[in-house]
Amino acid sequence: MKKILSLCIAALFSVGIYASPVRFPDSSVKIQKIFLQNFPEVSYFKVYKDGDNYVVYFKETKNESSGRVYYDADGDMVQSYRYYSGKELSPFIRAKISKKYHVEDITNVTEVINDQEHYYEIILNNAKQMLIIESDTEGHLQLVKKYKQT
Fold this sequence. Notes:
Blueprint: H1 2-19, H2 26-38, E1 44-50, E2 53-60, E3 65-71, E4 77-85, H3 91-101, E5 105-114, E6 118-125, E7 129-136, E8 141-148
């Protein structure tokens, strides 16, 4: 009888340990709160640890964009990447691209922001070629790569 009672008590303690709520490290919760303050419109995101930093991957359903934001352990934003279609790109930069490259189909845009720089990597397509260009916020354009379409 003592063995059965001891076994039941041990089983109850074991179930209690495994049934306790999962707790995230304080830093992860802190990063989530900071991210939601900075990006309240984001409906879907996940936080991952990457070395000393935290990476938040997110999707915005409203304008069909996505991205990732890097935070240090103190919650300071280190760098961000945002991916979106050409229709979301600034009209000013779109006009510069249209004038210089005579290409209207802006397929993808990657916006990169950190302490030292803010620039866009832009993919242009037409029937003959695909161009990868970079632009700063003032619209200074630079061809990075050029591919022939087959």
